[in-house]
Design brief:
With 393 residues, the protein is α/β, with parallel strands linked by helices. It is built from twelve helices and 13 strands. It has a nine-stranded mixed β-sheet with strand order 3-4-5-6-9-10-11-12-13, covered by helices on one side. The protein has a two-stranded parallel sheet with strand order 1-2. A two-stranded antiparallel ribbon has the order 7-8. Strand 10, helix 6 and strand 11 form a beta-alpha-beta unit. The protein is elongated. The termini are far apart. Bound molecules: iron/sulfur cluster. The site of iron/sulfur cluster has 12 residues, from loops.
């Protein structure tokens, strides 16, 4: 017989599917929500702050770990809620030290996260959606249909799993941390799931939470112009734009979203991005595609295009994936392209591809495990692209 005296806490749980045993997710709730939950369970609101710190600062995996909370309350919490993170369905380690996790969420959907360790930092690239609605032609994820948005808890869960793997709990207060930076540059368009991304990043930025400063968080968008100012106003994180072309003609060919939000509108949104300055520049990501966007004329068009924006560039040698129609520009071409930008006073390092051997580099993430030939993959990509472009209008 169900206990009818027990309050219905379903509405207080984090968004997302319940576990197989019916318990509800707690990861993804912010401090105010945890306080409301504590009150609803007959406790004082400060228990919410304690829960918040146990979950996001100390990385508790079990309610039993929360030793300054009464045993009776811990038992009631454990009866109804879980602190489950996504399950690691697959983990791969590149020869260059890059680590890629394939996360499986409670309903079986999957998304990837990649940790890129460097001498002075560790950057974790996380996903915001399973699949993507967009069709950037150079991107492997773009050949996958959108399955669903990730919840705040699933977005944060990717960071918590990485911290678990590195044994980085409680949140280090000094500079010994190995995960120093977060980039929303994995699967999906974060500005098409902005409410969830915003909530997740607010928990990540909280000093008594995961505690990563907004200066170390970068949201990367394909250019969803109407949401860009909101991102600057409400989150104030760094902005990166997948630019990849200096003219509408080329950009619309490789990024169909450009037909909806052309370069003029995108540049205006960048020029007025809240908080952008010479000290805090917008990053333009530019993938080098042989004979598509890599000529000196393309570089000169870019110089002209970004003249009103505080910006820097990352030149990314294209990372091939099975079935792609593109090739990477050769080294000389990339260097020539770089020198046009450098001569115009723009910062534009050529990025060393990371994790290529495990398909963890930029634009290579995709979570199906179908075994298809390159030709079959190409045919499948064309079919998905056609469908998505019809939806984009
Ligand atoms: S680059 Fe980003 S927005 Fe474009 S298809 Fe890939 S995941 Fe989607």
């Amino acid at each position: 017989m169900p206990d009818t005296n027990r309050p219905d806490l379903t509405s207080l749980a984090a968004d997302g599917p319940a576990a197989a045993d019916g318990r509800l997710p707690l990861i993804g709730l912010d401090k105010a929500e945890l306080a409301a939950l504590a009150v609803d369970m007959g406790e004082k609101p400060f228990r919410g702050t304690q829960l918040f710190q146990w979950i996001y600062s100390r990385g508790a995996r079990s309610f039993d770990d929360m030793t300054d909370i009464s045993k009776a309350f811990r038992t009631r919490l454990a009866d109804t809620f879980t602190l489950d993170r996504p399950v690691i369905a697959q983990e791969q380690l590149s020869e260059d030290g890059t680590r890629k996790w394939l996360h499986a969420f409670t309903d079986g959907q999957k998304a990837e996260a990649v940790l890129i360790p460097e001498d002075d930092r560790g950057t974790l690239c996380i996903s915001s959606q399973v699949g993507c609605t967009l069709t950037c032609r150079f991107c492997h994820t773009g050949t996958q249909r959108l399955v669903r948005n990730l919840t705040p808890g699933e977005i944060i869960g990717q960071i918590m799993v990485a911290r678990d793997a590195l044994d980085e709990w409680p949140t280090p207060k000094d500079d010994s941390r190995r995960i120093t930076n977060i980039v929303l540059m994995g699967m999906g368009e974060p500005l098409y799931n902005f409410d969830a991304v915003k909530k997740a990043m607010q928990i990540v930025m909280a000093g008594d939470g995961i505690s990563i400063s907004r200066h170390r968080i970068t949201l990367s968008t394909s250019g969803v112009v109407p949401e860009i100012a909101r991102c600057g106003d409400e989150l104030r994180v760094n902005l990166a734009i997948s630019l990849h072309a200096g003219t509408d003609e080329v950009r619309s060919q490789i990024m169909p979203i450009n037909k909806k939000y052309p370069l003029k509108d995108l540049m205006e949104a960048c020029a007025t991005y809240p908080g952008a300055s010479n000290a805090r520049r917008i990053t333009f990501e530019y993938v080098m595609l042989k004979d598509i966007n890599d000529s000196e004329a393309d570089a000169r068009a870019l110089v002209d295009l970004v003249k009103d924006v505080h910006c820097k560039f990352n030149l990314i040698p294209f990372n091939p994936w099975p079935g792609t129609p593109y090739e990477c520009s050769d080294k000389k071409t990339i260097e020539r392209f770089q020198s046009v930008l450098t001569d115009a006073g723009l910062t534009c390092p050529i990025r060393t591809p990371r994790g290529r051997d495990i398909l963890a580099a930029c634009g290579q993430l995709k979570t199906d495990s179908e075994k298809l030939s390159a030709k079959e993959r190409r045919a499948q990509a064309e079919e998905v692209w056609a469908e998505k472009e019809a939806e984009l209008g």
